[in-house]
Specification:
Layout (H helix, E strand, L loop, with lengths): L7 H17 L29 E3 L3 E8 L8 E8 L5 H11 L3 E8 L3 E9 L9 E2 L13 E4 L8 E2 L6 E4 L5 E7 L7 E2 L13 E8 L9 H7 L14 E2 L5
Length: 249
């Protein structure tokens, strides 16, 4: 299935898997109220000028958007990213996670297919005490340089150990992170045909991650809806109000 794999080969494997399923069933941190605009723009209105927190340096710029769909406000956050030379979607996520200690992610390195993105989180409290577990809290681990590594496609099992206020969503078989890209912010946001480590960043591009809550429910799965009518599918329509992340003080 077209998945947020860090290498393009896994995308082909994953879309075949979910296509079969379809046929069968078919921000932030220590903050004050001023950190969150009283009227954050909708995705259709959001612009680079709205961004507040930029990571990196260089003549090129891109935008990272993450929407958790977890009922916690603000539900979708955005960062700016600058760079020179060749960079990929994964570089943007990794560099932002290293710079913004509130932002973290879960990954798995498959010897055959490379890295897969399993979970994304944001510590709304800014406490930097995030811990995660894949065994019901019997043992908990903290991100190192913004990332946690797991040794299997067990993303659905990873839960927060204690901070109930943090954004956190992870999944692979029951739910998952869909990856949307556009080279022009006002253009069509397409379901990425490549994983983040293979998707080259383009100046003024947008890379948006949306958590599909239920792969078996067409109403909750962007994958299901877009596979039904890909020509008329614009990922931007799935995203709601976007809140620009404020730089931590």
């Amino acid at each position: 299935m077209l998945r947020n794999m860090f290498r393009g080969r896994t995308m082909t494997k994953r879309i075949l898997f979910l296509a079969t399923v379809a046929l069968m069933l078919f921000a932030c941190g220590e903050h004050s109220d001023s950190d969150h605009p009283s009227s954050s723009p909708l995705a259709v209105e959001f612009a680079f000028d709205d961004l507040q927190y930029w990571v990196g340096e260089g003549e090129n710029r891109a935008m990272l958007i993450v929407q958790w769909n977890d009922g916690k406000s603000p539900e979708a956050l955005a960062w700016g990213y600058k760079w020179s030379g060749a960079k990929y979607g994964y570089d943007m996520i990794d560099d932002i996670a290293k710079a913004d200690k509130r932002f973290f992610y879960l990954r798995f390195s498959d010897p055959a297919f490379g890295y897969a993105m399993g979970g994304i989180g944001f510590d709304v409290s800014g406490s930097s005490n995030i811990r995660l577990s894949n065994n019901n809290g019997n043992s908990c681990v903290s991100p190192i340089d913004g990332s946690i590594d797991t040794d299997a496609y067990d993303f659905d099992d990873w839960k927060l150990c204690d901070d109930a206020n943090a954004h956190w969503q992870a999944g692979w078989f029951e739910a998952y992170w869909s990856y949307w890209v556009t080279d022009i912010i006002d253009g069509k946001w397409k379901y990425s045909d490549l994983g983040a480590s293979s998707k080259i960043l383009v100046n003024n591009s947008v890379h948006a991650w949306y958590f599909d809550l239920n792969l078996n429910d067409p109403e909750l799965s962007t994958f299901s809806r877009c596979m039904e009518d890909p020509d008329n599918c614009n990922g931007r329509d799935f995203f709601g109000t976007i809140t620009p992340v404020s730089k931590p003080r």
